[in-house]
Amino acid sequence: MENNKAAANNKRRGFARHQREDMIGKIYTYLCVLMLIVVIVSIVYFVASKGLATFITDGVSPFEFLFGTHWSPDGTNPSFGALPFIAGSFVVSMLAALIAGPLSICAALFMTEIVPGKGKRILQPVIELLSGIPSVVYGFIGLTVLVPFISTVSGGNTLGYGVAAGALVLSVMILPTITSIAADALASLPRGMREASYALGATRWQTIYRVILPTLAPSLWTGIILGIARAFGEALAVQMVIGNAPFLPKSLLTSASTLTSVITLNMTNTSTGSVQNNVLWSMALMLLFMTFVFIIIVRLLQRRNKL
Amino acid sequence: MNAKTADKIATGVIIFFAIVIVAILGGLLGFILVRGLSHISWDFLTSPSQNFKAGGGIGPQLFNSLFLLVLTMIITVPLGLGGGIYMAEYAKENKITGFIRLVVEVLSSFPSIVVGLFGLLLFVNTFKLGYSLLAGAIALAIFNLPLMVRITEQSFRAVPREQKEAGLALGLSKWKIITSILLPVALPSLITGTILAAGRVFGEAAALLFTSGMTTPPLDFTDWNPLNPRSPINPLRSAETLAVHIWKVNSEGRIPDAKDVSAGASAVLVIMVLIFNLIARWFGRFVYRKITASKQVN
Amino acid sequence: MQTSTQPRFGTEELSVFYGTNEAVKKINMEFPDKSVTALIGPSGCGKSTFLRSLNRMNDEIASARVTGRIWMDGEDLNDKNTDAVTLRQKIGMVWQRPNPFYKSIYENIAFGPRYHGTRSKKQLDEIVEQSLRRAALWDEVKDRLKESALSLSGGQQQRLCIARALSVSPQILLLDEPASALDPVSTGKVEELIIELKKELRIVIVTHNMQQAARVSDFTAYFYLGNLIEHDNTTKLFSNPSNQMTQEYIMGRFG
Fold first, then answer.
1. How many domains are contained in chain C?
2. Global ipTM
3. What is the domain range of residue C151?
4. What's the pLDDT tens digit per position in C176-185?
5. Could you please report the per-residue DSSP string of C196-238?
């Protein structure tokens, strides 16, 4: 009898209670997700509204901004050609990927194919530490070791600042990104695929070259694109070694600029609302735009991966 | 070329590149530690920095970095936890979930300097927070949030499904299952991931240049009233962190011993990141053992 | 009006779909009180899916859809308006792999009752002891209640899971191959336990092991490709099955 009453009581209380709890849980988690969406929408909205002001309010021609090679924002007849920076960003990040791509893929092959097990135990922590080193530290080492080294190699004709220094520093920074994606892709490969190839008498390299790499090409490209994306958005390390001259990069050893380095150096030196300031926001918008482009490429690659 | 020779050469090249990578890390760490450790002293770690003279320390910067990390985590952890739990436990496989996944991916790909600029625009200028710890913490939280969401989602997804079903069979509410049954199981990897994310936040500078600023007001370390302008824990004061300091003395600084200061500060930064890595691993394992051990209090 | 023909606990035209695939097809079954019903059949025949739908575990699987009715004391458990959380308390469940909570032995048992409103320490102690005794585990663990449940052996963990299910006083117990991951000694203990528990409960057990079905159950149902082929008294079904398919399955397995 008492038991029944307790049970009935429990039921009534339990009923209200579990629904109340689930309501709290739902509201909390939904709010967090809503927050994510609000954040991303506001970032895009605010950066875009500032970045487009250059063209709408200040009347700078978008064509001049994208393709003009002359950058002199001050004076009576300012010109806002940002092509040197856009080109600088593309050149350093592509070069960085060119250096880091093969290294990273070899590192991943080392971990999974050449010395499975032990190779991973050695390289995994190395890769994690490389990705843990803060970007200013990379910049500082680039500045104190790499730049003088390049200067010496060039026979003292240059100071060592420039595209080469930027690309080298970035290549080390994006190495972990590409390596971990490549290693994950290799690890996901079914065991049987390798064995089938070995059974046909193929050597390990033939197996890697003819079977493994072609199969994983979309994933490897994903890694490389994400690496480029990271290099494209990296600011301080590049700024410290690239020299910051506002000209189109003519050779590996000439001083140049990237979108991020120009923003970094000039954002606090220009007054809010001025065209000199707004044009920096246009560059930030360009960075945002490129982020979306990179993500679209990655998505397309992943779709190819599934087929 | 014969297939066997090609195989040998390729293997050699791969091994060589692997060694190169290890050597790069060795070189980087070696350089930082050799160059920096000699400059680290108690005085260096605790005394204020100099603007024009040599011999400045990194005391306030170190404090700022740590305090900013705490503030950032206070904002990130609850939000990231909620978002990750949503993705792991509530999200259905449909278009909306796909969209949210895209949002997380995009947010995690935004360059940190853009996040910093957004912070400058919205929090520093529009909300009139000025260059402040609070604005910096919000920017870093935004920067860190997608990672936290992903860590949480993975940690919860790794919990055996039967744990959840056992809770359901006892007539527990879903939320009770999440907080009381799944969370303790997910905790070790959640903690490991969070500490690693914290390490990343600790070294971040680009998002902070325009949010927490590049200067620190004179601090009075005996004043712990957060409302006083000289108090170290006033969230509305500007604060130059260790990473920002390294950038500043190299780019805009006028101190003669910029290289020494940066080397010392870099060494401190790298050592802190190493410590975060070690703690993350050790603590995760510790919590796991605590939960599964034979001797347990609760 | 229908109550006289409705089973006290059973299903009516119960189907389970995964996407468009009908994994369980229009099952009508009744589970008598104080008895054990065994569900047998080859892997993938739908017996586990059927069992899981009885306490609406399939609600959690997005692609699963359950149609038909599950009757319990005149209530349709598969009705949208039936509160699944509350009904699950009345239907205990034990899985193939032991799945104790990552908590102490004591907490594993006390967690459910405390959630459902039992606050007094004394009462909880009582429930813990009683549940562990009913699961024949008390003597082995009474001195180490504060230790982690994961420190127990596999067989002990499974009995702990049975005790946990009993802690919220269910009327029905669903067992999904409860002994298949255990060694023979532990299996024996779990089987004894089932026979003991059926004095008070309805038990439905899914098993791959036909000797086990023969040993512990009063009724046996043979499933094949989502259909209920035969459902009868266990002795009758094993000695003299009326369906050819059942006979072949049993012969194939025994011979």
1. 1
2. 0.91
3. 9-254
4. 998 888 888 8
5. HHTTTSEEEEE-S-HHHHHHH-SEEEEEETTEEEEEEEHHHHH
